[in-house]
Amino acid sequence: MEIKWRRESKEGQFELHGCINDVVTIKEVLIKRFGFEPSGMELLTDDAPGPGSSLVIPTGANIKAALKRMVDGAEAGDVLFFHYSGHGTKIPSVKPGRSYCA
């Protein structure tokens, strides 16, 4: 796994250069190699608007909503696939004895 980021300016401080490429590559593999239908896929990316870009940015709430749609819309025999590429975060745990959610 390779994570590239730069710390040149405040705006691009934590920019990852391969995340959107990873998502696009996984999508192509799922379509070309495994026969998934593009119409059954939902991509959330934070790239600049344009052809093939996401209409929904990947906030925590939007990711959870997309996962809910995916699960709620599943039928017997469906294959569900979720791929995430990007920064993570630590969330304090509410469970005794644990500093962060695992």
TrEMBL record:
What Pfam families does this protein's entry cite? Peptidase_C14
One BP term from GO: proteolysis
Q: Do you know which InterPro entries this protein is assigned to?
A: Metacaspase, Pept_C14_caspase
Which residue range or ranges hold the Peptidase C14 caspase domain? Answer: 15-93
Any one GO CC term of the record: cytoplasm
Among the GO molecular function terms of this UniProt record, one is: cysteine-type endopeptidase activity
What superkingdom does the record give?
A: Eukaryota
| Record family assignment | Belongs to the peptidase C14B family.
Q: What is this protein called?
A: Peptidase C14 caspase domain-containing protein
Give the species this sequence originates from: Dipteronia dyeriana
- Output the lineage of the source organism: Eukaryota, Viridiplantae, Streptophyta, Embryophyta, Tracheophyta
